[in-house]
Amino acid sequence: MLYRVLAEALEKLEQASGYLEKNAIIVDLLKRTAVEEMDRVVYLLLGRPWPTYVSKETGVGIQQMKKAISTASGHSLKEIENLMARIGDLGEVAKLLAERRKQVVLFSEPLTVEKVFDRVKSLPDVTGEGSVDRKIALISELLTSATPIEAKFIVRTVLGDLRIGVAEGRMRDAIAATFNLPPEIVEHAYMLTTDYAIVAKAAAQGVGTLRKLGVTLGHPVSPMLAQRAESVDEILERMGGKAAFEIKLDGIRIQTHKNEDKITLFTRRMEDYTSMFPDLVDPIRKALNPKRVIVDGELVAMDKDRQKPMPFQEVLKRRRKYGIEKAAEQIPIEIYLFDVLMVEGRSVIDKPYKERREILEQIVTSVPGKVMIVEKIVTGKKEDILKFLKHSLSLGHEGLVAKDLESPYRAGRREFLWLKLKPEVDTVDLVVVGAHYGKGKRAGTFGSYVLAARDEKTGRYKTVTRCGSGYTDKDLKELTEFFNRIKLEKPSDEVDIEIECDAYFKPEVIFEVAFEEIQLSPPEKHTGGVGLRFPRFIRIREDRRPEEATTIEEIMQMYRTQHGRKGGELNAERSPFPKGRG
Ligand code: AMP
């Protein structure tokens, strides 16, 4: 295919605004693309000659690009800088200058998609002495034979910023429409490969080929996700009376691919994090017995003194480009494996959980303190489950994940086959002081309420959370009717609030709210200085007056003890679940 066809489609995409309009342009382009070119066209449409999970860049910056444009156009660097200052986009600058020398194009071979693709793809491999100049020469050679529109998009592609507003997610519908396939099949193929270029090429060959796409070593698979369960009873009911219960760790989801000696670590968002955890690579290589294997797990940071996991934020500190070695010393990490997706080239995702877990246990030789298998029990007995939950919490972990014994690994899906069970720290009684209108289905009703706790010292009400979940449709309707009758234009005098609301209220009504964690909050957000994570409406406390609301001091006290509680002081008498709503 001529590159001109692609560049013209990119130009149209940049100008198009609506979803349908953009979709039609992509569909038209894909329909004109031959099967053997499909992957290249899709990659270039998405702006890079690699799938998104490959963390490669061309290594060409703005300054080098200015030089390449200067060489190709015969205009001085100064002129290019002036134009850049005026236009603000080097792609447009290249286009403008190419327009001024139309005659050159007549003598050169038209560019093909293949040539542009291969050239851009080769740039990262140009290394060593003189590589900067060689890269400039390679780009300017392309620009010399480019039409104005081609020049614009070559520049933008090399700089890694296509600016046409086509997100990867859009490809699902475009591919489905082009080849007349159900979007779910296209999506499923993407969940397994994380690469729309491969998916489009297979789709072009027919639904049979598309269905054959599967788990491939080196390509991250979208991780299977968990729904939240409200109670042990709910889990047992959904899972047929018996299930596997694993410790739920709070860290970073990591999918490990081992291909001979090469280890690659992908995050939940399919980014390659291998270079960030060099201290884990060797132990993982040793722990995994097969030559070629994909396993799933959670990476956690350990506090070596307390022998407890550190909060999730600590793991994130390891996510850095520089000072990796030092961070590795300060924040040691370990990985707990809980699933296996491929062994020696064969996908095992369609096998039931219980078989995958057996395989996992056979193929992993634990490296204590570095690579381990997540602890689990299989049971249908409520007291065993609660005991195991307590055990998990006493080790400083988050709770449990229940897994359906018969379930396959459902890539990219959040279904009821995995259910997470986390205790809510507690409930509090808070005063309603403001509200925001909802969106979509909730338009016209208040969709979330701003809640405050009382400051005992001053008697004022200070905000601590915004609560938008836990309401039934009926709750939302009734609450809106009620609060509409008492709404104020401005915050009530006795309330300290920084959040701008659609309506304000006198502190009169009390909500009981469950939450997972208390965090410190900047006073410009919540005037109470603390905030609740994952708040959930339980009910109105009609039996309580505002003066009886939970106080800021009480919430601070809960904040100070919450890690201790996570650390095992869970009261055996106290159910880890809030009182249900009946
Ligand atoms: P959440 O992030 O709250 O939706 O919980 C799901 C996440 O818990 C997964 O994506 C994993 O990162 C993490 N997790 C921790 N332990 C496990 C486990 N044993 N099985 C599955 N996921 C786990």
Low-confidence stretches: 564-582
CATH topology name of the largest domain: D-amino Acid Aminotransferase, Chain A, domain 1
Shape: globular
Estimate what percentage of residues fall within beta strands.
15-25%
Short note summarizing the structure:
The protein is α+β, with helices and mostly antiparallel strands and 582 residues long.
Structure explained in plain terms:
The chain is an alpha+beta fold and 582 residues long. The protein folds into 4 domains: 3-159, Orthogonal Bundle (DNA ligase i, domain 1); 168-211; 225-421, DNA ligase/mRNA capping enzyme (D-amino Acid Aminotransferase, Chain A, domain 1), CATH 3.30.470.30; 427-566, Nucleic acid-binding proteins (OB fold (Dihydrolipoamide Acetyltransferase, E2P)), CATH 2.40.50.140. The strands form 4 sheets. Strands 3, 4, 5, 6, 7, 8 and 9 form a 7-stranded mixed β-sheet that branches. Strands 13, 14, 15, 16, 17, 18 and 21 form a 7-stranded mixed β-sheet that branches. The protein has a 5-stranded mixed β-sheet with strand order 1-12-11-2-10, with helices on one face. Helix 6 (90-99) runs antiparallel to helix 10 and helix 11 (171-179) packs parallel to helix 13. The termini are far apart. Mean pLDDT is 90; it is low at 564-582. The structure holds adenosine monophosphate. Adenosine monophosphate binds at residues 223, 225-226, 246, 248-249, 253, 268, 298, 338, 374, 401, 420.
Present the secondary structure layout.
Elements (H helix, E strand, L loop, with lengths): L2 H13 L3 H13 L6 H8 L16 H12 L3 H11 L2 H10 L2 H6 L5 H10 L8 H14 L3 H12 L11 H9 L3 H11 L2 H9 L2 H6 L12 E4 L3 H7 L4 E6 L3 E8 L2 E6 L10 H10 L4 E12 L4 E2 L2 H5 L7 H7 L2 E11 L2 E2 L5 H11 L7 E3 L2 E4 L2 H13 L4 E5 L10 E8 L4 E12 L8 E9 L6 E7 L5 H14 L8 E2 L6 E2 L5 E6 L1 E4 L9 E4 L2 E5 L11 H15 L16
Parallel strand pairs: 1-12, 7-9, 15-16
Antiparallel strand pairs: 2-10, 2-11, 3-4, 3-5, 5-6, 5-7, 7-8, 11-12, 13-14, 13-17, 13-18, 14-15, 18-21, 19-20
The structure holds adenosine monophosphate (AMP).
